User: Fold these one by one.
Assistant:
Number 1:
Amino acid sequence: MIAAAGKGTRAYPRTTYIPKPLFEFQGKTILERNVELMQSTFRVKKIYIIVGHLKEMVLSEIEKIRKNHRDVEIIPSPWTTKGLASDIASLEPQIHSPFITILGDEFYFYPDHKKFIQTLRKHPKLIASIGVQKTSLLSRIRKNYSVELQGDRILELVEKPSDPPNNLLGLGSYLFTPPYFEYFKQTPPSVKNGIIEITDVIDLMAKKSRKVFATELNVEYFNINSMQDYHHAVYEIRNEEFARFKTTLIVPTKNNERSIADVIVDFRGKVDEILIVDSGSTDKTLEITKKEKRKLFPVKPKGTRITSENRFGKGSGPHPEISRSS
């Protein structure tokens, strides 16, 4: 189950027109990445996605995801407007076995959620397992929740603690079993907002059953509460991935025999590849390019000189040949 219904008021004003689960990282929405996480890690056959805020946009994204992931059944389910715990409980008629729950506004970079499977094998009689992560930033724990442990058994959960008991950050990844639904019914609403909080349900499960365990994840975790969180995540991911990118220099030419060799020499070793996009040279430009063993992409000239239009194509997009070369 993926919770993708919240309004995300702390990321206002963007969330007035884009729900947080549809924020993108490297060309994919958080929602699609979490679907991929569930499918690749747990081989799930069915995923319930809770929808509410900007429902039509989320449903449209679900349709796109379905086209790329045809071997999993994705089922939208309406939110209760009463919080995550109630949204999960609304699925009681459909769920009869252990199930993973992930918050729709949390992005896991290089996830290792397979550790939930290891926890289940270690504790086959567990009724829940909660994802946690060690962190040196206590401010992150204060924004989420903390757990007190005995070994890997969870003794207590504390929502947004002012004084965290340890360096364990509670994440929005959970492994639940059907007993969850009974514990939900036993959990009183919060005196602050009248809503049954997910942390209160888990806390009750932990104290009554002593069968709730922590699963420590070694993962880059981004909780997108605000636009600042989103921009920080984008920066961190790009910074880590930058070394994997290939740097390409594209050199448009037409009768540049006197300068092309200097350009190639100047950038040799500074970029991964040099592409020569030639617009009908009649001098020795092509001969020099071939001698330097550089990739050559001839294009049909559109006039007597290379203009910004035939160099890069009409409008702001690249010329078709350059697009194909990249």
Note: The first strand starts at residue 2 and ends at 4.
Number 2:
Amino acid sequence: MFRGTVRYASVHAHLGRTASRRDDLESLAYTLIFLHRGRLPWQGYQGDNKSFLVCKKKMATSPEMLCCFCPPPLKQFLEIVVNMKFDEEPNYSKLISLFEGLIGPNPAVRPINTDGAQKIIYQVGQKRGRLTIDEEDDQPKKKVRLGVPATQWISIYNARLPMKQRYHYNVADARLAQHVEKGMADGLLISCVASYTNLWALIMDAGTGFTSQVYELSPSFLHKEWIMDQWEKNYYISSIAGSSGGSSLVVMSKDWIDQGPGLESGCELVRPGTGTQYTQQSYKVSDSFPFKWINKKWREGFYVTSMATTGSRWGVVMSRNAGFSDQVVELDFLYPSEGIHRRWDSGYRITSTAATSDQAALILSIPKRKPGDETQETLRTSQFPSTHVKEKWAKNLYLACLCYGRTVS
């Protein structure tokens, strides 16, 4: 989390991302708009989730809405800034030139008239003859942050050796057991679960590496007593999902032998010794995305291994000895496309995802053992991606995780 003034902070600062020059410019834009209007739309929020509410409002407020009572250059400035890429070099001369019509040609009347300002004014003046707003727009640029909010399926595909995989979606509670039993009879185990409204999606395949599996459909979100009972039987949480009605589907799996009893600590549950490569497991249910808890657990050697949501609540499972050397979170009120591609370039791969109607969170990890084929693809679809899944199978790409929630179209 960032330290600073919430009112003027950039969206990326709210979301816990590394700051760059675009964030300084975004904060400058909010400051200028505040000085012109006397107020910003996200002022007045209070409480522990103030930063969440302010960030949500910033993401939902378009430059047109925010600058509707401002001179056009402020809107143009903000539009350019919020669509800059992380490592993009700002064209300061271009940005300054936007305001020349407001300030006037005489440098003596400018509010701040320093030697440094005069040098920049001179540079802008030299470029005035050839500088236009569309100078860099000859090539179409993909907008980083502007778009229409949507709710969609987010599906992640990994390259695997050929294997059998099966999916079911729009599964009602009453039909879940028959799909699971049929899959297990065919040698398949559950690799991923998700939910759309109050229906379930189920992915089963032959490549989980588990030897045994149990699951529970509960009217509550992550049934504590059942989870602790299964920890005692050497199972660990391998996949979770939550419905919009508050119920949950928890899958727990077993491989090797176990080493110890379970513990409880407040609203966080901890299991030391889970019977697989994991040596300890913990989970937390939170009314907002639990950034601070995740950071604390990272320092203790845990990594996120499963996530789910119900309504605006988040459930996050973290495990020790998860096979990762590093891990990051990409959290967004739209969809963190830029962040995902930047992390891919640095060797990270998506290992877990979940979303509410407001936010999407993707966990990206660096595996300790580098896979032979690092290919990973993502899709966002309005309907369950059944056709796309079959197309991916033909290329030996298999569903690794999926969720339904906030994206951008």
Note: The chain has two domains: 11-102, 150-254+275-408.
